[in-house]
Amino acid sequence: MRIDLHTHSTASDGTDTPAELVRNAAAAGLDVVALTDHDTVGGYAAATAALDGTALTLVTGAELSCRVDGIGMHMLAYLFDPAEPQLHDARELVRDGRVPRARGMVDKLQALGVPVTWEMVERIAGDGSVGRPHIATAMVELGVVGSVSDAFTADWLANDGRAYVEKQEFDPFEAVRLVKAAGGVTVFAHPGAHKRGETVPDEVIAALGAAGLDGLEVDHVDHDAPTRERLRGLARDLGLLATGSSDYHGSRKTVALGECVTDPEVFARIAARATGAVPVSAL
Which of 85, 131, 217, 279 is 20 to 30 A from 78 in CA distance terms? Predict the structure, then answer.
């Protein structure tokens, strides 16, 4: 089985619609795919409807924006009840803060001489949950940077960048609690992605493990071989699951679906722990 537990659609900052994502995942030979848009499950209904005619299994999920001790991090949440009110309301609070934050980054870029406009960002984001990749895409269109990744530097949109604006985010310990209460499973996304900025220290990861964190995303394109080895050992020492995922964003990044995958036994343990939802296949 080929299992990819981290992908994005146009419901947040991917370029594939949810239906296209499902079709592309099936064409890529995946058996299981998780749709984990940022702080939303808005694409899940369309993705579920697109399963007909495929042998694909779909996992509901979201990637929650978190911050601890001033360090940004992302928490993958799987198979939670999307209607559970506390987690739903917390996700909405984070999503509501995305627009003023993005407008603030546009203002900073304009002050730095970049002729990006809010109208450009709105067009690129469409119905998705607006975020930095949409602003980065506008910068690519303007020729300011050569790629979306090139915009995520200290010069521009990185966490310590000149145009960065902080946003409403979850406390990760609260995120773990809320997801657990909604019957879900939590995995710390790309915990060793140093090129994105400062990373969470191992002591905090250990504390999150003690608070109920289920796993670490070990096999990820932003982790080199030594980082993967270190994280795999950390997961083993803490009794956490080790997953692998592409973090696919469609044409916005060069990563392919299934570029990193999760072991079927690990996925089975994730599914067994969840009580809020179940993986869905075509009828």
Answer: 131
